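Researcher: Here's a chain I'd like modeled. Treat it as a single chain, no partners, no ligands.
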Amino acid sequence: MICPKCGREYEDGSTRCSDCDIDLVKRSEYGAESRQNDKIVTGERNLVKVKNVSDDFEAWTIMDLLERHNIPCIKKEREAGSYLKIAMGYSVYGADIYVDEQNYDEAMELINSLQTDAGSQDDQTDGKEATLLKIPKFIMRGMLILILISIILLIISRAIPVK
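Model: Modeled as a single isolated chain. C-alpha coordinates:
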Protein backbone atom coordinates (compact mmCIF):
# COMPACT_ATOMS: atom_id res chain seq x y z
CA MET A 1 0.00 0.00 0.00
CA ILE A 2 1.20 3.51 -0.85
CA CYS A 3 0.16 6.99 0.22
CA PRO A 4 -0.88 8.87 -2.95
CA LYS A 5 0.22 12.19 -1.43
CA CYS A 6 3.68 11.53 0.05
CA GLY A 7 4.51 8.20 -1.64
CA ARG A 8 5.43 6.45 1.62
CA GLU A 9 5.00 2.68 1.45
CA TYR A 10 3.14 0.67 4.11
CA GLU A 11 2.48 -2.98 4.86
CA ASP A 12 -0.63 -4.43 3.20
CA GLY A 13 -2.64 -4.33 6.47
CA SER A 14 -2.44 -0.53 6.74
CA THR A 15 -5.28 1.63 5.42
CA ARG A 16 -4.33 5.26 6.23
CA CYS A 17 -1.11 7.26 5.97
CA SER A 18 0.18 8.19 9.42
CA ASP A 19 1.79 11.38 8.06
CA CYS A 20 -0.91 12.70 5.70
CA ASP A 21 -3.99 11.09 7.30
CA ILE A 22 -5.46 10.03 3.94
CA ASP A 23 -6.48 6.62 2.58
CA LEU A 24 -3.74 4.48 1.07
CA VAL A 25 -3.96 3.01 -2.43
CA LYS A 26 -2.70 -0.30 -3.76
CA ARG A 27 0.75 -0.26 -5.34
CA SER A 28 -0.79 -1.15 -8.73
CA GLU A 29 -3.15 1.86 -8.51
CA TYR A 30 -0.29 4.24 -7.77
CA GLY A 31 0.12 5.15 -11.41
CA ALA A 32 1.04 8.12 -13.51
CA GLU A 33 -1.77 10.30 -12.14
CA SER A 34 -0.46 9.82 -8.59
CA ARG A 35 3.07 10.67 -9.69
CA GLN A 36 2.13 14.19 -10.81
CA ASN A 37 2.83 15.52 -7.29
CA ASP A 38 6.15 13.67 -7.23
CA LYS A 39 7.66 15.37 -10.29
CA ILE A 40 10.62 17.68 -10.45
CA VAL A 41 11.11 19.47 -13.75
CA THR A 42 14.71 20.60 -14.25
CA GLY A 43 15.42 21.98 -17.69
CA GLU A 44 15.41 19.00 -20.04
CA ARG A 45 14.73 16.35 -17.39
CA ASN A 46 11.43 15.34 -15.83
CA LEU A 47 12.26 13.51 -12.63
CA VAL A 48 9.77 11.27 -10.83
CA LYS A 49 10.01 9.95 -7.27
CA VAL A 50 10.41 6.17 -7.15
CA LYS A 51 11.09 5.57 -3.48
CA ASN A 52 11.05 7.21 -0.07
CA VAL A 53 13.91 5.92 2.10
CA SER A 54 14.52 6.29 5.80
CA ASP A 55 18.31 6.50 5.88
CA ASP A 56 21.43 6.92 3.75
CA PHE A 57 22.29 3.22 3.71
CA GLU A 58 18.93 2.33 2.15
CA ALA A 59 19.32 5.22 -0.32
CA TRP A 60 22.83 4.12 -1.33
CA THR A 61 21.66 0.53 -1.79
CA ILE A 62 18.82 1.52 -4.12
CA MET A 63 20.83 4.16 -5.98
CA ASP A 64 23.67 1.69 -6.56
CA LEU A 65 21.21 -0.86 -7.95
CA LEU A 66 19.71 1.72 -10.32
CA GLU A 67 23.08 3.06 -11.46
CA ARG A 68 24.39 -0.49 -12.13
CA HIS A 69 21.46 -0.83 -14.56
CA ASN A 70 22.32 2.52 -16.21
CA ILE A 71 19.39 4.38 -14.67
CA PRO A 72 20.54 7.84 -13.53
CA CYS A 73 19.03 8.87 -10.20
CA ILE A 74 19.25 11.55 -7.56
CA LYS A 75 18.51 11.70 -3.84
CA LYS A 76 16.64 14.68 -2.39
CA GLU A 77 16.34 15.15 1.36
CA ARG A 78 12.82 15.64 2.68
CA GLU A 79 11.73 18.77 4.54
CA ALA A 80 14.60 20.18 6.64
CA GLY A 81 16.67 17.01 6.26
CA SER A 82 19.66 18.73 4.65
CA TYR A 83 19.90 21.20 7.51
CA LEU A 84 19.50 18.48 10.12
CA LYS A 85 22.34 16.50 8.55
CA ILE A 86 24.62 19.52 8.85
CA ALA A 87 23.59 20.30 12.43
CA MET A 88 23.12 16.80 13.87
CA GLY A 89 24.76 14.43 11.41
CA TYR A 90 21.51 12.69 10.45
CA SER A 91 17.94 13.44 9.38
CA VAL A 92 14.72 12.07 10.81
CA TYR A 93 12.78 12.97 7.66
CA GLY A 94 14.36 10.52 5.22
CA ALA A 95 14.92 11.20 1.55
CA ASP A 96 13.29 10.64 -1.82
CA ILE A 97 14.96 8.97 -4.79
CA TYR A 98 14.12 10.33 -8.24
CA VAL A 99 14.70 8.96 -11.74
CA ASP A 100 13.93 10.24 -15.23
CA GLU A 101 10.27 9.79 -16.11
CA GLN A 102 11.08 7.46 -19.03
CA ASN A 103 12.99 5.14 -16.65
CA TYR A 104 10.24 4.98 -14.00
CA ASP A 105 8.81 1.55 -14.88
CA GLU A 106 12.21 -0.13 -15.13
CA ALA A 107 13.35 1.48 -11.86
CA MET A 108 10.21 0.32 -10.04
CA GLU A 109 10.73 -3.25 -11.30
CA LEU A 110 14.30 -3.24 -9.99
CA ILE A 111 13.30 -1.81 -6.60
CA ASN A 112 10.42 -4.26 -6.26
CA SER A 113 12.74 -7.16 -7.18
CA LEU A 114 15.15 -6.02 -4.48
CA GLN A 115 12.37 -6.02 -1.92
CA THR A 116 11.13 -9.43 -3.14
CA ASP A 117 14.65 -10.86 -2.82
CA ALA A 118 14.85 -9.57 0.76
CA GLY A 119 11.51 -11.25 1.51
CA SER A 120 12.72 -14.66 0.38
CA GLN A 121 15.43 -14.90 3.05
CA ASP A 122 15.30 -17.83 5.46
CA ASP A 123 14.82 -15.68 8.56
CA GLN A 124 11.48 -14.28 7.32
CA THR A 125 8.76 -15.06 9.90
CA ASP A 126 4.96 -15.02 10.11
CA GLY A 127 4.56 -13.94 6.46
CA LYS A 128 5.18 -10.29 7.39
CA GLU A 129 6.38 -8.02 4.61
CA ALA A 130 10.18 -7.98 4.51
CA THR A 131 12.03 -4.77 5.14
CA LEU A 132 14.70 -3.82 2.66
CA LEU A 133 17.44 -3.60 5.25
CA LYS A 134 16.99 -6.32 7.83
CA ILE A 135 19.61 -6.53 10.58
CA PRO A 136 20.94 -10.09 10.87
CA LYS A 137 20.10 -11.91 14.09
CA PHE A 138 23.72 -12.51 15.07
CA ILE A 139 24.42 -8.75 15.02
CA MET A 140 21.36 -8.08 17.17
CA ARG A 141 22.41 -10.78 19.64
CA GLY A 142 25.93 -9.35 19.82
CA MET A 143 24.58 -5.87 20.49
CA LEU A 144 22.30 -7.23 23.22
CA ILE A 145 25.22 -9.06 24.88
CA LEU A 146 27.33 -5.87 24.84
CA ILE A 147 24.51 -3.88 26.41
CA LEU A 148 24.00 -6.50 29.14
CA ILE A 149 27.74 -6.62 29.91
CA SER A 150 27.81 -2.81 30.15
CA ILE A 151 24.86 -2.81 32.57
CA ILE A 152 26.46 -5.51 34.74
CA LEU A 153 29.78 -3.63 34.87
CA LEU A 154 27.95 -0.43 35.81
CA ILE A 155 26.11 -2.18 38.65
CA ILE A 156 29.32 -3.78 39.92
CA SER A 157 31.24 -0.49 39.77
CA ARG A 158 28.57 1.25 41.86
CA ALA A 159 28.40 -1.61 44.38
CA ILE A 160 32.13 -1.45 45.19
CA PRO A 161 32.75 1.40 47.66
CA VAL A 162 35.46 3.90 46.81
CA LYS A 163 38.01 4.49 49.63
